[in-house]
Model the fold of this input.
Amino acid sequence: MLLHALQHAFRRHIPRLCALCELPLTAWEHHWCTSCLTCFQSTSRCTRCGLAMPFPTSRCGACLQSPPLWNALYCLGDYAYPLAPMIHQIKYGRQFWLIPPLATLLAQVIPSPAPVLLSVPLHWRRYLYRGFNQSDLLAHHLSRALAVSSQTRLLQRIRPTPPQEGLHKHEREQNLRRAFTLRSRPSATHVAIVDDVVTTGSTVSQLCQLLLEVGVEYIDIYCLCRTPEYHNQ
Done:
């Protein structure tokens, strides 16, 4: 993408500053200073749903009672500072240079990567309006960081839907019914769906259902942020 290349070239010729505190970076620091990098330290989570927990667990109580359709969810953190404003800068400020370093950090928390990455699709009308799909960009850079394949055209959004923001879980589920289709079967039985933010999981659940119906056996979710449970009510 031309804009991404121009951003990268511009940043190479200006003083290197931390993307958070804007203080100068040392020779061995990249994108964030050592102090700000601690903001991205992983917290204890349920491996299945990705929600924060007092201690690490493979399945929290909610997942034992009603597990999601996916098998594991890995994220950098909650939808809060510093990740929330960064995602806002990417989506609405076109600060695409943030995606590669965030993808690198996300790759470090994924223990056994899926061999194929898929991205949450945009409807063509929204893609034309926005000009990009941040999930596609994240999947591209994450696939490079993980050394796996990225097949971002297999999933398609066939029905335009109102934005999910501000909707409760049941409203999100109703909003997304019959909104997606699968163009072809993935080349592996273990795949990962890539998105910037997972809130209630309604979107990725719809996509998981399509994949399970064609024989996919194991599905991961890779995202930058997982919205805390109290925001999902």
